[in-house]
Amino acid sequence: MTPDVPDSPYRPEELVRQDGVGEPDEFMRLWTPHRMAYIEGENKPTSSEAGSGCPFCRLPGLPDTDGLIVHRGDAAYAVLNLYPYNPGHLMVVPYRHVADYTELTDAEVTDIAELTRQAMQAVRTVSGAQGFNIGMNQGEIAGAGIAAHLHQHVVPRWAGDMNFMPVIAGTKVLPQLLADTRALLAKSWP
């Protein structure tokens, strides 16, 4: 049995009622089960120690394609975010396991700044980003998902990118696979 949903852009035959879930409504569901790994903290470090338990320490040991590394600098690297806010959302991460910005060396600060500038150029080349949110969440209380290893977010923005999906549904629609985004950005890196 399929419910008839008035004013729905979807054909009634696309809406299938599941037994035991109550009365159907007019909402379509966009299932994102891959996000459960993030929600449940899968692969999130359980300690603040450096090493294989920290994804940011582990990634540089992988091939760039496997680790989604876009570019490697002298003291830091650029990597795609596994849980992006927008397409092309990447992070600039020092190789050294350090939690606080004030603990960075001058060389690390310089490399993070240069890679951030280059990331902006590459993202603009690939996607025509009109702006960026750039920042670090310092400490778990400030929202850092991995507080023990500093990382700077570079989030591209476009006019109208805050559409109804994130506002109403708490969902981001990403039109491209991360591996494809990584390849485009790596090719366009200045």
From TrEMBL:
<dbReference type="GO" id="GO:0000166">
    <property type="term" value="F:nucleotide binding"/>
</dbReference>
<keyword id="KW-0547">Nucleotide-binding</keyword>
<dbReference type="InterPro" id="IPR011146">
    <property type="entry name" value="HIT-like"/>
</dbReference>
<dbReference type="GO" id="GO:0016779">
    <property type="term" value="F:nucleotidyltransferase activity"/>
</dbReference>
<dbReference type="InterPro" id="IPR052908">
    <property type="entry name" value="AP-4-A_phosphorylase"/>
</dbReference>
<protein>
    <submittedName>
        <fullName>ATP adenylyltransferase</fullName>
    </submittedName>
</protein>
<feature type="short sequence motif" description="Histidine triad motif">
    <location>
        <begin position="149"/>
        <end position="153"/>
    </location>
</feature>
<feature type="domain" description="HIT">
    <location>
        <begin position="55"/>
        <end position="164"/>
    </location>
</feature>
<dbReference type="InterPro" id="IPR036265">
    <property type="entry name" value="HIT-like_sf"/>
</dbReference>
<feature type="active site" description="Tele-AMP-histidine intermediate">
    <location>
        <position position="151"/>
    </location>
</feature>
<dbReference type="Pfam" id="PF01230">
    <property type="entry name" value="HIT"/>
</dbReference>
<feature type="binding site">
    <location>
        <position position="81"/>
    </location>
    <ligand>
        <name>substrate</name>
    </ligand>
</feature>
<keyword id="KW-0548">Nucleotidyltransferase</keyword>
<keyword id="KW-0808">Transferase</keyword>
<dbReference type="InterPro" id="IPR039383">
    <property type="entry name" value="FHIT"/>
</dbReference>
<feature type="binding site">
    <location>
        <position position="153"/>
    </location>
    <ligand>
        <name>substrate</name>
    </ligand>
</feature>
